[in-house]
Amino acid sequence: MGPKFLADVLKGLPVETNPNLLVGFNTADDAGIFKINDKLALVQTVDFFPPIVDDPYIFGQIAAANALSDIYAMGGRPLTALNIVGFPPGMPPYILTEILKGGADKIHEAGAALVGGHSIKDKELKYGISVTGIIDIDKIVTNSNAQIGDKLYLTKPLGTGIITTAIKKNAADIESAEYVMNLMTQLNKTACELMLKHNVHSATDVTGFGILGHAYEMASASGVSIKLDFGKLPLIPKALEYAEAGNLTGGANANIDYLKDKVQILSDLKKAELDILYDAQTSGGLLIALPPESAEKFMAEAKSLGLTVSEIGEVVKKSEFGIVVG
After folding, report:
1. What is the CATH number of the domain that holds 244?
2. Phi, psi at 226, each rounded to 5°
3. Where in 188-251 does DSSP place strands (E)?
């Protein structure tokens, strides 16, 4: 569902007032956080969706990595996971077996335990997981603490929605398909550990609302504006080429509708470049706001760990537009 539709739905719900709920749905953050004691809290999330690739095992991995990413965006550590399945009657059972194997392998890679799940019959195949993690209360990372002067970093390139749409149309070459599948199965675990080590102020993961949508949520929650440099945005190889060929997601159109009065584009960008900005991502990277003094060591350590990180912009004083793209 698009961000505008969800905003309309959620504004009609009462605000949760439980004093132990430190982060709830009211803040548009990546996961909920519930206080256990003065030192620890639970961090919880859920995510599921239909297949975006043909290989059931890889689909299971992608869906699990996508859900786990919410825990990492908050600075948490996954503990347990529950499978969520919608499966069409008549579809061969081995397909679901492979999906669940893929999910389980990714859950175990994250250091979490798979404790069960729930399944229903459905006209369309769907899979995902609900994840519970743990977090130190003094290390909670939200999308609402970006500070003026912070540098912004992105830990995965953009264009997954465009490439996976091309895959569905049988229009993607083997190299592009393999690249994007490998990218989407990568956990954000190392990026999480690295940002915590280098005094992160704020973070979110880039998924269905695209880079602009999630950056706007951070800017709005933090009471600032965010300036992005399009020329510094990391792009998946051939993403622009596939965008020019019309491989666009429905989610991108929803993002455009929601952000039309919230984003200022200063550069003379081509349509395909704009499509990248609004592209709905799956299992994308972390968008991280760090103080300038942490930048050099953060980037150096990321390189030493083999983590691809790009500096893409900065946090600036709040203006008429939440996001400015130069």
Report:
1. 3.90.650.10
2. -125, 130
3. 202-205, 225-228
- Partners of 270 in the beta sheet? none
Q: Which residues pair with 131 in a beta bridge?
A: 45, 81
pLDDT of residue 144: 95
Verify that 215 and 309 share a domain, yes or no.
Answer: yes
pLDDT per residue over 10-56, tens digit each?
Answer: 888 888 889 999 998 777 889 999 999 999 999 999 999 999 999 99
Of 212, 204, 229, give the one whose Cα is nearest residue 321: 212
Residue 130 bridge partners (DSSP): 46, 82
pLDDT in tens, 291-313: 999 999 999 999 999 999 999 99
269 and 126, same structural domain? no
Residue in 238, 226, 127 with CA at minimum distance from that of residue 172 = 238
Asked if residues 242 and 176 have their Cβ atoms less than 8 Å apart, the reply is: yes
DSSP string of 250-276, one letter each residue: HHHHHHHHHHTTTEEE-S---HHHHHH
CA distance 90 to 252: 33
Give the range of the structural domain holding residue 170, as residue numbers without chain letter.
151-325
Q: Residue 279 corresponds to which amino acid?
A: D
* 132 in Cβ contact with 79 (< 8 Å): yes
What pLDDT, in 10s, does the model give residues 221-264? 999 999 999 999 999 999 999 999 999 888 888 999 999 999 99
Q: SS3 for 298? A: helix
The pTM (predicted TM-score) of the whole model is 0.94
